[in-house]
Specification:
Length: 296
C-alpha cells in the first residue's frame, strides 16, 4: 500500500546559465506516512526548497510525480499549507484578520463568528494574546509574526503542512518556545508535517524521521534516519537519552563527510533506512555507522 505522501523518482534540471543544463537532484524517492513529522537535512543548494516547492505544487519537476492521498499533486491546494522563513503575512491586515482571511477561504460556508472563533483558537495555541491579535505585522516582533504564520497554516487544517526553515530568523529563546508550541499543536491535530531545517538539534527534537540529502549537483535522498526517542520530548531531557548522541553523531558524520563522498553517485529508489537504538541493545562499535544500521 502506498504511503500518505509518495514522492516517486523526482528529478529537477535547470539551465546552468552557460548554455548547459544542471541536474539539481535525480530520482529522489521517498514516502511519508499520515501524521508523520519528517525533517530534511542537506547542504545548501542540494535542492531542499525545490523539493518543497514541488510538494506544495508551486513548481513542476523535470521528471517524476508526487502523489498525496491517492491524487497526483499538480498546482497549489488548500490541502497543502506552506510556512516560509519570511512569514509572508498580508501587511495591511491585523494578525487576527490574516488568520480569519485564510479560514474563510477554506470554509466559505462558515459564519463570521465561526471563522473568528477558529482563528482565535489557533492564535491562542501559539501563545498570542488578545491585544497582540489586533496588531498589524509591522507592529509585531519576528517571533510573533512567525507564530501568526504557523497559526494560519494550522487553522486551515491542511492535510500536509510544509515548513521551509520556519524558525531560521528567530533568536534561540523564541525558537525554542515556538518549537514547543509546534510540537503541541502537531500532537493535538495529527497533521502530517514536512520540514526543512539546517539545525540538527531542531530536527532531532521534532522529527519522527530525518531524510538526509547528498550534496548537489546530482543530489539524492540517501538516508532516512529514524528518531528513536520517545515522545513527548523535552529538549532538556532527550539529551540524556542513550540514543540522542548516537543519532546526532550519525547526522553530523553524514553532513560532514558522507554527503560529499556520495555526491554525484547515481542511485535511485528509496533511501536507506537507518535505525539507531542503543536502548534496544545495538552497539555503536566497531564501525559506528554500519553497526547501527539495523534495517536494510
Ligand atoms: N529557477 C531556477 N533556475 C535555475 N536554478 C535554480 C532555480 N531554482 C533553484 N535553482 C538552483 O537549484 C539548486 C537547489 O536550490 P534550492 O533552493 O532548492 O536548494 P536548497 O537545498 O533549498 O538550498 P538552501 O539550503 O541554501 O536554501 C541551487 O543550485 C539553485 O541555484
Amino acid at each position: 500500500m502506498k504511503p500518505f505522501l509518495s514522492v516517486e523518482n523526482l528529478t529537477q534540471r535547470y539551465p546552468d546559465g552557460r548554455g548547459g543544463i544542471t541536474t539539481v537532484f535525480e530520482n529522489a524517492s521517498f514516502g511519508i506516512g499520515r501524521g508523520e513529522f519528517v525533517c530534511i537535512l542537506g547542504h545548501s543548494g542540494c535542492g531542499k526548497s525545490t523539493i518543497m516547492n514541488i510538494l506544495a505544487g508551486l513548481a513542476e519537476p523535470s521528471e517524476g510525480v508526487v502523489v498525496m492521498d491517492g491524487a497526483q499533486v499538480s498546482g497549489p491546494s488548500l490541502d497543502r499549507g506552506v510556512v516560509f522563513q519570511n512569514y509572508s503575512l498580508l501587511p495591511w491586515l491585523s494578525a487576527l484578520r490574516n488568520v480569519t482571511f485564510a479560514v474563510a477561504a477554506r470554509y466559505p460556508g462558515w459564519t463570521k463568528a465561526q471563522v473568528r472563533a477558529e482563528a482565535r483558537k489557533y492564535l491562542e495555541m501559539v501563545g498570542l494574546s488578545e491585544d497582540v491579535m489586533h496588531r498589524k505585522p509591522s507592529q509585531l516582533s519576528g517571533g510573533m509574526r512567525q507564530r501568526v504564520s504557523i497559526a494560519r497554516a494550522f487553522a486551515n487544517h491542511p492535510k500536509l503542512l510544509l515548513l521551509d526553515e520556519p524558525f531560521g530568523a528567530l533568536d534561540a529563546l523564541t525558537r525554542g518556545t515556538i518549537q514547543d508550541e509546534l510540537l503541541k499543536i502537531w500532537a493535538g491535530t495529527g497533521q502530517t508535517v514536512f520540514m526543512i531545517t539546517h539545525d540538527i538539534d531542531e530536527a532531532i527534537l521534532l522529527a519522527d524521521r530525518i531524510l538526509l540529502m547528498t550534496n548537489g549537483p546530482m543530489a539524492r535522498v540517501a538516508e532516512s534516519v529514524e528518531i528513536t526517542l520517545p515522545r513527548p520530548r523535552a529538549r532538556t531531557a532527550i539529551v540524556s537519552h542513550p540514543n540522542y548522541y548516537a543519532i546526532r553523531n550519525h547526522l553530523v558524520r553524514f553532513l560532514g563527510h558522507r554527503s560529499r563522498e556520495l555526491a554525484g553517485q547515481a542511485g535511485g529508489g528509496a533511501p536507506e533506512t537507518v535505525r539507531i537504538d542503543l536502548a534496544a541493545g545495538e552497539s555503536e562499535e566497531p564501525d559506528a555507522r554500519r553497526a547501527l544500521r539495523a534495517i536494510p
